[in-house]
Amino acid sequence: MELPEEEQNSRRLYELYLGGKKPGPVRCILQELFKKRWDATYPSHPWRDDETVPHRWLETTWDSVKEYTGKVKLMGLLVLDGTWKPLADEAGAPITVTRLADSERIDAGLHTEALKESLAQGVKACRLVRRYPDGSAVVIAKVGGKNGLKYHAKDNTFAGLKPKNPSASESLLELHVPTGEVRPSSSSGNNTQQHALLGEDKGLSSYDVSLLCDLLKDHGHGLLAGDEFSGLREILDSIKNDRNEKACHEGYV
Asked: Burial level of 84, CB count in 10 A (0-12/13-18/19+)?
């Protein structure tokens, strides 16, 4: 029995975007496009789909902050976070600071002048990082806003951390800044997107049409920046709309 035309069209769209047992052709084309544009944009960090790395991260709820450790996909981590390095003084030693309790401020102590000099040279994006004896590290706070850290001469501290510091102070924290080799995503990613990118069992072949459209158009990475890609960006908007509104929405799976 032949399906009504409207149902036939829906079925065609489903197979085109989502596929059946195998990924749909649009998804496969976008995966290939994403890899090519990533490799062209970041030749020093070409796409390596299978590599995993140890990782520490914090998850915040309304009443608690929990730290987790595990293995994640390296490329997914680069997509979300980009590449960072410790901010160092003239001697090459990491600049360490103390986050002050119940405030958005840090005290750089003996490193105050070195940090002021770095800020004067244009450093804005920073991350506050806790380093462990085994060499691993976890990001515990970020500098929010376009102004970055701001020095307050009155109490010799720097303000601008997001979120606000907890009730207890903490010393010997590193400040990390972007290396520029791989830029951070313009979006930190929701939990579903983070799982799709970081999951140890994930990889480019598991990225769906919506996720690929988002990554290709991400302003942080700029994989399709410039007038030469304006038509392609419009096509991606149409593809994502058709996928989500007509083919059916199943999330980042």
From this structure: buried
* CA atoms of 48 and 28, how far apart (whole Å): 17
> Taking the mean position of all CA atoms in its chain, how far away is CA 208?
18
Burial environment of residue 169 by CB neighbours within 10 A (0 to 12, 13 to 18, 19 or more): middle
* Cβ pair 106, 99 in contact under 8 A: yes
- Distance, first Cα to last Cα, the chain: 32
CA pair distance 22, 9, nearest whole angstrom: 19
Q: What is the pLDDT of residues 82-140, one digit of tens each?
A: 999 999 988 888 999 999 988 889 999 999 999 999 888 888 888 999 999 999 999 99
CA–CA distance from 76 to each of 49, 53, 73, 199, 200 (Å)? 9, 10, 5, 8, 10
